[in-house]
Amino acid sequence: GGRHTPFFKGYRPQFYFRTTDVTGAVELPEGVEMVMPGDNLKFVVELIAPIAMDEGLRFAIREGGRTVGAGV
């Protein structure tokens, strides 16, 4: 699983929360140009649609139905 290539600002994967996939735009922190496979990073995501969630909710990051990452 996972990605085999880095991603950059403007990356727009699907975020899977419980039963819903929603696209989100990733905003990388200041000074971070790219995220390599295996990196752990805090970043901001702007979802294209509002969904209800609680703090600490786990989610999967998906591309084409394939899980490539996870977060909290």
From TrEMBL:
GO molecular function: GTP binding; translation elongation factor activity
GO CC annotation terms, alphabetical: cytosol
The keyword Nucleotide-binding belongs to this UniProt entry's keyword annotation: yes
Limits of the Translation elongation factor EFTu/EF1A C-terminal domain: 1-72
Keyword Protein biosynthesis: yes
InterPro entries with a match to the protein in the record: EF-Tu_GTPase, Transl_elong_EF1A/Init_IF2_C, Transl_elong_EFTu/EF1A_C
Annotated protein name in UniProt: Elongation factor Tu
Organism encoding this protein: Alteromonas stellipolaris
Name of encoding gene: tuf
